[in-house]
Design a protein that fits this description.
Blueprint (H helix, E strand, L loop, with lengths): L2 E5 L4 H12 L3 E6 L7 H11 L5 E5 L5 H10 L4 E4 L13 H21 L4 E7 L22 H20 L2 E7 L2 E2 L8 H10 L4 E4 L5 E2 L2 E2 H12 L5 E6 L5 E2 H12 L5 E4 L14 H7 L7 H14 L1 H4 L5
Parallel strand pairs: 1-2, 1-4, 2-3, 4-5, 5-6, 6-11, 7-10, 8-13
Antiparallel strand pairs: 9-12
Helix pairs in contact: 1-2, 1-7, 3-4, 4-5, 6-8, 6-10, 8-10
């Protein structure tokens, strides 16, 4: 493969995946609508770093816009597509479910339709561990995921189903990646790791939904990006593959690590557990090991240390970022 279309390029996972692809010598065409779901300054920071690479080209557009996407497909001959563009955020999907359907499901359909039209044969789709709500842990890929508890999760299931349809009808090779609680430097300001580091550094109380004993299978962003590229480079037919840390930790332990590396004590405010949140996540990653030769390398301790370090190095402009 030489040229890749990567959507959601200015997003958290998209940025790191694009960066690794560019360093591996790929030509990357990036697409992002630069929406303001969270502070755009973080997206601009990521995008400016990518623009330093000569093998990177960027289009500010939306995967909901079929006509704009088709112009891009006409202008470039893609070897593969990685769809990391998505409306993120479980809780906000209860406020505006419609935009989740139009971006996550319809947007994915737009890409698949253009892929079959322009004969692009490899598709990597970012999906979510949120689909496993109510299932037995550790979550394995062949579990039935028929009980999504948020419009976000439901819209991702719709994207997975549409990807299967295009695989069946047109022979597109599809790898669906279900990500588990991704964190790291230049992360999303709406997620707990970013918020907690910022708030603890600023001596602002942190808000915890529940008692902090809920568990997450935290996965460092570099590991996720590596797994995503391995999926691009691997012919799978149609496969759903978990990418996760394979070791769930309590939220309270993650907070303790932030306290350790910031050298500060968190002031905690507890609120009722949110009904759209999952109590725990835990990925079975045997399929990723077997098919992609992938497993995570960065421990939670090392990952939080690196993330706090990045926050300290960028404290001047991060001070203005809204969370």
């Amino acid at each position: 493969m030489n040229k890749v279309l990567l959507t959601g390029t200015a997003g958290f996972i998209g940025f790191k995946t694009a960066q690794l692809l560019l360093e591996k010598g790929y030509d990357v065409v990036g697409v992002d609508n630069m929406n303001d779901y969270y502070d755009v300054r973080v997206k601009e920071y990521r995008l400016n770093l990518l623009k330093e690479y000569p093998n990177f080209k960027f289009y500010k557009t939306d995967i909901e816009n079929l006509e704009a996407l088709e112009i891009i497909f006409k202008d470039h001959s893609f070897d593969g597509v990685i769809n990391l563009a998505a409306r993120a955020g479980v809780r906000y999907s209860l406020v505006d479910p419609f935009v989740y359907v139009t971006t996550n499901t319809l947007g994915t359909t737009n890409l698949l339709e253009l892929m079959q039209k322009y004969n692009v044969k490899k598709f990597v789709l970012a999906s979510t561990s949120s689909l496993y709500a109510g299932q037995k842990m550790p979550f394995i890929e062949d579990l039935p995921v028929n009980t999504p508890i948020s419009p976000y999760a439901a819209s991702k299931k719709g994207a997975e189903a549409m990807a299967y349809t295009y695989h069946h009808l047109y022979g597109i090779d599809v790898t669906v990646l279900r990500y588990f609680t991704v964190y790291g430097p230049a992360g999303r300001p709406d997620m707990s790791v970013f918020r907690f580091i910022k708030w603890i550094e600023e001596d602002t109380p942190i808000t915890i939904f529940g008692d902090g004993t809920q568990k997450r299978d935290f996965t460092y962003v570099d590991d996720i990006a590596e797994g995503t590229i391995k999926a691009l480079e691997t012919e799978t037919g149609y496969e759903i593959i978990n990418l996760g840390g394979n070791k769930p930790y309590k939220l309270n332990y993650m907070i303790e690590l932030i306290e350790k590396f910031t050298g500060k004590t968190a002031k905690k405010v507890y609120k009722e557990f949110h009904k759209a949140d999952m109590k725990a996540t835990w990925a079975n990653i045997e399929k990723a090991k077997k098919l992609l030769k992938w497993q995570p390398k960065i421990s939670l301790e090392e990952g939080i240390r690196r993330t706090v370090k990045w926050h300290k190095e960028n404290a001047k402009w991060l001070k203005e970022v809204k969370v």
